[in-house]
Every structure is written in C-alpha cells, then in structure tokens.
TrEMBL record, chain A:
<feature type="repeat" description="WD">
    <location>
        <begin position="364"/>
        <end position="386"/>
    </location>
</feature>
<protein>
    <recommendedName>
        <fullName>Probable cytosolic iron-sulfur protein assembly protein 1</fullName>
    </recommendedName>
</protein>
<dbReference type="InterPro" id="IPR001680">
    <property type="entry name" value="WD40_rpt"/>
</dbReference>
<keyword id="KW-0677">Repeat</keyword>
<dbReference type="Pfam" id="PF00400">
    <property type="entry name" value="WD40"/>
</dbReference>
<comment type="function">
    <text>Essential component of the cytosolic iron-sulfur (Fe/S) protein assembly machinery. Required for the maturation of extramitochondrial Fe/S proteins.</text>
</comment>
<dbReference type="GO" id="GO:0097361">
    <property type="term" value="C:cytosolic [4Fe-4S] assembly targeting complex"/>
</dbReference>
<dbReference type="InterPro" id="IPR028608">
    <property type="entry name" value="CIAO1/Cia1"/>
</dbReference>
<dbReference type="GO" id="GO:0016226">
    <property type="term" value="P:iron-sulfur cluster assembly"/>
</dbReference>
Automatic annotation (TrEMBL), chain B:
<dbReference type="GO" id="GO:0007059">
    <property type="term" value="P:chromosome segregation"/>
</dbReference>
<keyword id="KW-0159">Chromosome partition</keyword>
<feature type="compositionally biased region" description="Polar residues">
    <location>
        <begin position="1"/>
        <end position="12"/>
    </location>
</feature>
<protein>
    <recommendedName>
        <fullName>MIP18 family-like domain-containing protein</fullName>
    </recommendedName>
</protein>
<dbReference type="GO" id="GO:0051604">
    <property type="term" value="P:protein maturation"/>
</dbReference>
<feature type="domain" description="MIP18 family-like">
    <location>
        <begin position="68"/>
        <end position="142"/>
    </location>
</feature>
<feature type="region of interest" description="Disordered">
    <location>
        <begin position="1"/>
        <end position="21"/>
    </location>
</feature>
<dbReference type="InterPro" id="IPR002744">
    <property type="entry name" value="MIP18-like"/>
</dbReference>
<dbReference type="InterPro" id="IPR039796">
    <property type="entry name" value="MIP18"/>
</dbReference>
Length: 386, 192
C-alpha cells in the first residue's frame, strides 16, 4: 500500500499544531501559533471560517464536543493558559445536497473563557458523551470540568499526579476513564471514585516524554470485548506502544455491566500492561498517533517529517493464552505505508484518521488521513494499493 | 549575578577558528518583528510544499551543504549573558563539539551542538542553550533539525537542561516569552 496525497490547503501564516475532526459533520478545526482556529470543509477542502480574538498566544489544541445536534461547540486550549469555548448554531445542513457558498455561515460566538491553569495549556479533550472536559498544562496538572448549564462550567477536580508538564489528555470511548501523558515519561489513568477523581493506574515503560495517547475505538476490527479499548502511546524515545488492561475480576464486558468496583468494596486500581511495541521507523520525536475506527490501523507522525501507517498482525500467542486466560496476548504490528517529507522539510505535528466526505469517497467506510505541520499546511492523504 | 563565574577561561578572539562568512539571505529577526519563526517569513515558504533542489531562485544555501565551520561562525559570536565576552571566547562553543549531517540527497539535515558551560552548575545553561537555538533557527534553512545539548559530564543537571532545550513545545513557548526573548536578544546583538 502507499500513501497518496489527496490535496494540500494553501499554507496558513504560521505553524499548525493540531487538527480535530468533527464527530458528525464534514468539518476540521485547526489550532495554530497565529492565535487562530480555522474551520475547513472535509467535503470541498475549502477554508470556511477563522475563529480569532479569544487568545493572546498560540492555540495549541482544539476539540469538538461530541453528542450535539443543531449546534457545534469547539474548545480551544492556548499557550496563554486559558481555554476557550466557542459555539455556533448549525442549520439543517443536508450534507449531501449542500453546495459551495450557498449557506449563510453562522458566526462563531466566543461563549466563555476557562481560567485556572498556571501555564501553557497543551491539550483539551471532551469525554465520549460530551459530559466532561479534560485539560492539561505545563503546570503539571490535569483539570476535569463539567458544564452544569449553558456557558457555566464547574471544575470537578484538579489532578496533580504528574511530576512534569502534561502533554496530552484522552478519554476512553465507553467508560468514564481519562488518560494523560507527560514530559515525566509516564502515562496515568483516572477514574471517578466515590468522592473524588483518583489516579487508578500508572503506565511506565517509555524512556522519554510521551507526546500523545489515544484509545482504540470499539468499531475497529482489532477490538476485543474481553480486553476493552486498548491505549496507544508515542514518545520522544522513538517508540509507539500499545497497552491493554489486565482484567482483575472477570472480563471487561462483565465489568461494564457490574456496579462500580468501589461499591463492590474492591480497590479502584487497575493494571495495564504493554502488549505491543510497533516497529521502529521514525528517527526523531513522534508527536502523534491516531487509531482508525474503521480499519483499526494506526498512523503516526514525527519531527523527522514522516507519516507512517501500521496494521496489526493476528496474534499467535497461544502459549500465553493457555497459561493465563486473564492476561491479554502480545500482538505484532507491521508497517503498511510510509512517506518521507510529508510536509516538505518541515516537521509534521499531527495526524488524524477521518471519514472521507469528498467527491471521491468510495462508500461509508472510506477514510482519509489529515495531517498538519510547521509549514502551516493541512494535507489530506489516502491509502491506496501500490 | 553569579560570583562563582568570576574567573572563566578566556580564549583570544583572534585564535578562534573562522573564515569569511558566506553571505546569507537575511530574514527579518523574530525578535524585532513579532515572534514568528524565520521560515514563516520566508517569501518562498508558500512554494515549499514539495522538497525541490531545482528551483534556481532559492537561496544557495539550499543547494550548498553547510558544514561545522559555518555553524561555529554563527554561534561563536553570541554574547554570554553574564560576561562581556562571547561564547567562542569562553569556549562554551567549540568547533570540535559541532556535528553536521547535510546530505544533499536527504530531505532533512541535522546539526548537533554540544555546549560546555563555564562552571558545572551554571544556572544560565538553559538560557545560553536557548540563545544558540534561536540563532540557528533564524539563520539556517528549515531543513535543519537542531539538537542543542550540554556536553556530558560538564553540568550537574545537564540531562534536565537537555530535555528542556530539545522539547518543541517548551522552546516554542519560550520564544513567546517577552522577558526571556529580551535576554536572548541582547545575547545575539554581538552576532555578525
């Protein structure tokens, strides 16, 4: 297979740090060091609007709130230590029939600013149902926020478990479980206890800053109900790892149906183990991994300017499986496509899988990879058979 | 500031390795024109989506490989934040501790600069490292990846300093810090 470029948007004035794919509509949001967030159409790849004026420094992270209809809500995380919440009403957009430029674009409204972090915000993430917002910062903390009514957010918890900058936060797709990764080389997981949120797991294994973590999606082919969604991580140590939870009391499927472990009188702690290290391709810090909800493939991007796509090899760890049914199997991965110089000579900051919405989309399950880099460019890639 | 650095070893400026500086297309300094990295102000940036060495209108540094001596010439004249001397004169920067890999057939090139602080607990090691980074980021074409490190064994918290100096987000946000950039700006005033 090979990665083929579908298109590149005209460059923005400054580096683009991140892209975020809308949960339901054909839209991308970008975060840039020019203090703006921009909205781009995934149908036509045209730039649609620019969100500005809310932040005094670079916008580092953007995230769309899931679970909404008739409205879009975007969260922006900035180096100015604040978080912005932006709203826009969406018309009854019939995405199949809409034509370029014939709708009146509703304006983005700057709904509110969330203060609290003491230094640069690095990552923002909404929980799967949209109930919670997690944010993290160079100030070593992870904050959990809840929107109690419109434009009114409450801080539920400030977690100070990491010993250094927290680079990324990510929520589990089904359970109320939050992951964070840090400059301190570790990954931490958090759950809501009876009174407070607590750190329920510490994942050690990386030997340098962990830039990104992302959970597997339940719709991906490699997902196993008995182990639940796995976690992928990427690091300055040039490795990408996959972590799986060892179920302490029965399968993950049972755990979902049972009352919270805290009521059953059990410890809230859980054990996660490394079940894969992906083949090493990148030669410099790996900034991002993204896990496809359709094909189960993982895509990564790095300072070395490469974008790499990996696929899981069916595990043949039968010896392990017989010996200990509760231990998840080790799995192997192989590289299926790789491209150097994806953004010319510049670093690639982010890659994300997305459903394909453009005119060349081959059905509902077709996907593309969206990338962005220090050249200020957002590019779109397809995987084709070589 | 720090009285313990009162008697550093000083080299004679005329003894330092150098050669006539190649005339390089000068991009506007981010320190005076808003904190935008040099590449974003490069008028050719919008055309550089694909790497190409056949475009004759580009700066000749794209075609001519850059070597260790050129890197040295760029950073040896940076002023030390404490002493009225340059990093070259103080032997903080040394030609033999610079390594360049600039293969014209590869897309990206690498520069490794190892710094030797004047004393092993120099509290300004991070600022000096940042100054070297800023200078090289402004002066070199974007195909260069920089690794600026404190030479092993020369600093008590060298590994911690190295981690900061080579973390992209930390460096990016330091470049947006006016106070810090004021200090770095003064250090770069002496550069030729």
């Amino acid at each position: 297979m090979r990665l083929k470029k579908v298109t590149s948007l005209p460059p923005q004035a400054e580096r683009v740090w991140q892209v975020a794919i809308h949960p339901t509509l054909p839209l991308i949001a970008t975060a840039s060091s020019d203090k703006t967030a921009r909205i781009i159409s995934l149908q036509t790849y045209d730039p649609l609007s620019t969100i500005e004026g809310g932040h005094k420094r670079s916008i580092r992270s953007v995230a769309w709130k899931p679970g909404l209809t008739g409205e879009s809500v975007l969260c922006t995380g900035s180096f100015d230590a604040t978080i912005g919440i932006w709203r826009r009403y969406e018309h009854d957009l019939d995405v199949r029939n809409s034509q370029e430029g014939d709708e009146e674009e509703e304006e983005w409204r700057f709904a509110l600013v969330l203060d609290g972090h003491e230094s640069e915000v690095k990552s923002v993430a909404w929980s799967a149902g949209g109930n919670f917002l997690a944010t993290c910062s160079r100030d070593k903390t992870v904050w959990i926020w809840e929107e109690i009514d419109e434009d009114n957010f409450e801080t539920l918890e400030v977690m100070q478990e990491h010993t250094q900058d927290v680079k990324c936060v990510a929520w589990h797709p089904e359970e109320v479980l939050l992951a964070s990764s840090s400059y301190d080389n570790t990954i931490r997981l958090y759950r809501e206890g009876s009174e407070d949120w607590v750190c329920c797991s510490l994942l050690e294994g990386h030997t340098a800053t962990v830039w990104t973590i992302e959970f597997e999606k339940p719709t991906s082919p490699g997902y196993r109900e008995e182990w639940g969604a796995r976690l992928a991580s990427c690091s300055d140590d040039l490795s990408i790892k996959v972590w799986t939870r060892i179920s302490r009391s029965g399968s993950a499927a049972e755990a979902k149906k049972a009352p919270p472990s805290i009521l059953r009188g059990e410890s809230i702690e859980e054990n996660w183990v490394e079940t894969s290290t992906l083949p090493q391709v990148h030669t410099r810090a790996i900034y991002k991994v993204s896990w496809s909800s359709k094909s189960g493939r993982i895509v990564s991007c790095a300072s070395d300017g490469r974008i790499v796509v990996y696929e899981e090899i069916a595990s043949v760890d039968t010896e392990m499986a017989e010996r200990d049914e509760k231990k998840p199997p080790m799995t192997g991965w192989k590289v299926v496509a790789e491209i150097e110089g994806a953004h010319g000579v510049f670093e690639v900051n982010c890659v994300q899988w997305s459903k394909r919405w453009d005119k060349d989309a081959k059905g509902e399950n077709d996907e593309v990879i969206v990338s962005c880099g220090d050249d200020g460019v957002v590019s779109v890639w397809e995987l084709e058979d070589a | 500031m720090d009285g313990k650095n009162a008697n550093p070893t000083i080299l004679n400026a005329s003894d330092l390795p150098t050669r006539r500086q190649v005339q390089r297309k000068k991009v506007a300094s981010p320190l005076t024109s808003g904190l935008v990295p040099a590449y974003a102000q490069d008028p050719f940036a919008s055309h550089k989506v694909e790497f190409s060495d056949s475009d004759e209108s580009e700066d000749d540094s794209v075609v001519e490989p850059i070597d260790e001596q050129e890197i040295y010439d760029l950073i040896a004249t940076i002023a030390d934040p404490e002493h009225p001397l340059t990093l070259g004169e103080l032997a903080v920067v040394n030609l033999q501790h610079i390594k360049v890999i600039d293969d014209p057939s590869a897309i990206i090139s690498n520069v490794l600069v190892e710094l030797t602080p004047t004393i092993n607990h120099c509290s300004l090691a991070t600022v000096i490292g940042l100054g070297v980074r800023v200078r090289l980021e402004q002066a070199l074409p974007p195909r260069f990846r920089l690794d600026v490190r404190i030479r092993e064994g020369t600093h008590a918290t060298g590994e911690q300093v190295n981690k900061q100096l080579n973390d992209k987000e930390r460096v990016a946000s330091a470049l947006e810090n006016e106070t810090l950039m004021g200090v770095v700006g003064k250090m770069l005033e002496t550069c030729k």
